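Course assignment 3, question 2. Fill in each field.
Student: A.L.
Task: Predict the tertiary structure for the chain below.
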Amino acid sequence: MRVEVDWTGGIAFTATARQFSLQIDEPETFHGADTGPSAAEYLAIGVGGCLGTSFAHCARQVDLPIASIKVIVDVDMHHGGEDRTRPLRITGMATELVVTLKDESDMDVFDLCVESFKKYCVVTQSVISGIPVDVKVTRAT
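Answer field:
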């Protein structure tokens, strides 16, 4: 998989993944123009989207009739150090899946998905494990 992220001015970027384009920017309080979600928000979107996808896939595999799934992701961000002078970091995420079933008689199958879906979410499991990131900067000629 590969994505490309191109600068559009200020601190905004357009990301391209397959045939999709997404705006990335910071809110004005972080010196951006607020033209799109921030990279940190996209990380939370990725975690929430992956968890929702994994649960929906499990439900489909076991014929669990789902009426709706809402994933809520709360992100904790803090400056490090006692004097709070270190750079801002994501220090934790709390997620909640709110699932509405079409038929409440399927609670055993629902419980099966609740117990198993998390291990199949590639994004969340990778974030939990800590992803090594190789960063290289080259100058275009």
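Instructor remarks: The first helix runs from residue 39 to 61. The helical segments are 39-61, 107-116, 122-129.
Grade: pending
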